[in-house]
Amino acid sequence: MKANNSKVKATLPRGKTSIFRSQWFFLFVAEIAIAIVTGIVNPRFFTTSNIMNVLEQIAVLGIVSSGMTFLIISGEIDISVGANIGLSSCVMAMMIRSGNGYLLPVLVGIALAVFNSFLVGLTARVFKAPSFITSLAFISVFQGVALAITKGSFQTIYGKFEFIGTTRLWKVLPLSFIISIAAYIVAHFLLSYTKLGRRTYAVGSNPSAAFLSGISVTKTKLTVFLLNGAFVGIAAMVLLSRIGAAQPSTGSEIGLKTIGAVVIGGTPLSGGKGRIVGTFFGVLLMGLISNSLNMLRVNPYFQTVTFGALIIASLAVSVLSTYKGRKKVI
């Protein structure tokens, strides 16, 4: 009995320590602190309408971040997701305006986003260049194509295809947020319970070792790019339904915010590790900070500075976590 008790006592602190050392836990604590401070200064922060507004605002970012988590874990990155959303949403809007219904435009838009993301990954593999560089080049390509087909004009669809952006389950919870939760669940399932997930971690951690163990590095990474494109396409659909219009610059700010949310959620840019739960809290932190700054009536220009500082902080966290990992190995 004494031996068993000693074993129980020895294992309990380890479980607690692992939770307290998780980055998502610190994000959760920080978000509670932000909510309390903002709620004290402006009690309207805790109203149901404002909370639902925050959930609605982070829906698109959450969907894109689910795919980006996969990419970064695999050791890749795609900063062209914002331009990809702009092009895909413009194509959807133009097809809807032309009277093609809703299903076909959505399917074409998602397929286009998948193709665009695959093109970024394929170019990186063919030329053996960092995906950061190829995706940087494709920002101009996607925006240029969007400008060419729209001639730089707004593609408005007001009164059409707005059921995703306006639907509230039980007249409270935004449908767009439910879709983002579904994206988190799908990404978590694929990462945790499938061969693709295990291969993604292996390829991101050590591509050479993964190759020697029989894993096709190129196939795995291209598959992840395809998956990322699917998430981007769904995000474009949700964003179009929410705002009722599209233009080439639609989603232009999402790219950096997505990377910041994923990295600050505990997925290092070096790849090989990360969890969707961390990404969720990283996205939630982005939404809370934006809403809190608005509630506190902070100058919009300073809000931009705040987001830039947050992204820098997320990069610092990534570098520190990578350094600690290497130190442990040494």
What oligomeric state do these chains adopt? single chain
Structural class: mainly alpha
Kindly state the percentage of residues in helix: over 70%
State the end-to-end CA separation: 39 Å
How many alpha or pi helices?
Answer: 15
| Contiguous runs where pLDDT drops below 50 for at least 5 residues | 1-17
Mean pLDDT: 87
Strand line-up in the sheet with most strands: 1-4
| Elements, N to C (H/E) | HHHHHHHEHEEHHHHEHHH
Overall number of strands: 4
Main beta sheet: 2 strands, antiparallel
Global geometry? globular
Radius of gyration: 21 Å
Give the percentage of residues in beta strands.
Answer: under 5%
Describe the SSE topology:
Layout: H1 2-20, H2 23-41, H3 48-57, H4 59-73, H5 81-97, H6 103-126, H7 131-150, E1 155-156, H8 163-166, E2 168-169, E3 173-174, H9 175-193, H10 195-205, H11 207-212, H12 217-243, E4 245-246, H13 254-264, H14 276-295, H15 300-329
Helix pairs in contact: 2-14, 4-9, 4-10, 4-12, 4-13, 4-14, 5-6, 5-7, 5-12, 6-7, 6-12, 9-10, 10-12, 13-14, 13-15
Protein traits:
mainly alpha; disordered N terminus; about 325 residues; globular; about 75% helix; about 0% strand; two-stranded antiparallel ribbon
Give an account of the 3D structure:
The structure is a single chain. By secondary structure, the chain is mainly α. It is built from 15 helices and four strands. It has helices spanning 2-20, 23-41, 48-57, 59-73, 81-97, 103-126, 131-150, 163-166, 175-193, 195-205, 207-212, 217-243, 254-264, 276-295, 300-329; strands spanning 155-156, 168-169, 173-174, 245-246. The strands form two sheets. It has a two-stranded antiparallel sheet with strand order 1-4. Strand 2 (168-169) and strand 3 form a beta hairpin.
